[in-house]
Amino acid sequence: MDTNKLLAALSYFSIFFAPFLLPIILYFVSDDYFVKEHSKKAFISHLVPFLGLLFIILGAVGDFTGGGIPVFSMLGFVLYGLLCFIVLIWNIVRGIKVLK
């Protein structure tokens, strides 16, 4: 198996054990364009759930300061869970496609 393909796939699969660390390390250490491109895409895909978490926090602050039922917060948590699941599946599929 090609080492560059394995490293590129590992950057996607790192969502399970080192979501930010491994793609950044591979991006700066590797000289291969293929590995750099996939590690950059993996890093961005690992970053998406944390940006979604920011919107949930902002929505929760708005809900709880106005009183009433925190509808946007509850909806935000459901959408955030769905977003995390989609990102997880997307990373698994991309890692498998890179290995083929």
TrEMBL record:
Alphabetized, the UniProt keywords read: Membrane, Transmembrane, Transmembrane helix
InterPro entries xrefs: MamF_MmsF
Cellular compartment(s): Membrane
Membrane topology, record value: Multi-pass membrane protein
Q: What transmembrane ranges does the database entry give?
A: 6-30, 42-62, 68-93
What is the predominant subcellular site recorded for this chain? Answer: membrane
Pfam name, any one: MamF_MmsF
Q: What is this protein called?
A: DUF4870 domain-containing protein
| Native source organism of the sequence | Peribacillus deserti
